[in-house]
TrEMBL record:
<keyword id="KW-1133">Transmembrane helix</keyword>
<keyword id="KW-0472">Membrane</keyword>
<keyword id="KW-0812">Transmembrane</keyword>
<feature type="transmembrane region" description="Helical">
    <location>
        <begin position="109"/>
        <end position="126"/>
    </location>
</feature>
<feature type="transmembrane region" description="Helical">
    <location>
        <begin position="83"/>
        <end position="103"/>
    </location>
</feature>
<feature type="transmembrane region" description="Helical">
    <location>
        <begin position="47"/>
        <end position="71"/>
    </location>
</feature>
<protein>
    <submittedName>
        <fullName>DoxX family protein</fullName>
    </submittedName>
</protein>
Amino acid sequence: MAQATPILILALLAVTFLQSGYDKIKDWKGNVEWLKSHFSQSILANQVPLALFTILILEIFSGVLCVSGIIELFGSPSSEVGLYGAVLSSITLIFLLFGQRIAKDYDGARTIVIYFIPAVMAVYLLS
């Protein structure tokens, strides 16, 4: 199967973002409380609910596009939807990285880069 690598990367991104989005929905209040503390000394201190909602929307759309891209790759030679999923996943990760850097959570930022590498690989493979 020629598309095994992009399918596996899209699956990784889909699981990552759909689980994260589900967690945000399931425990919205807990996430907001924790993030208010996390960003208390930053310019995002008063923007936590809006920022979290923005990330939630980006994660859900990224995950759904990645799943749709997997389905597309199984059904046709086209990879357009998967490419959109990989690009939006990369953008979402950049937003998350920005937040971690603003919060001066450099270990958290480093963790996001681990996810960013396969996301950019997917963009490359599906372009």
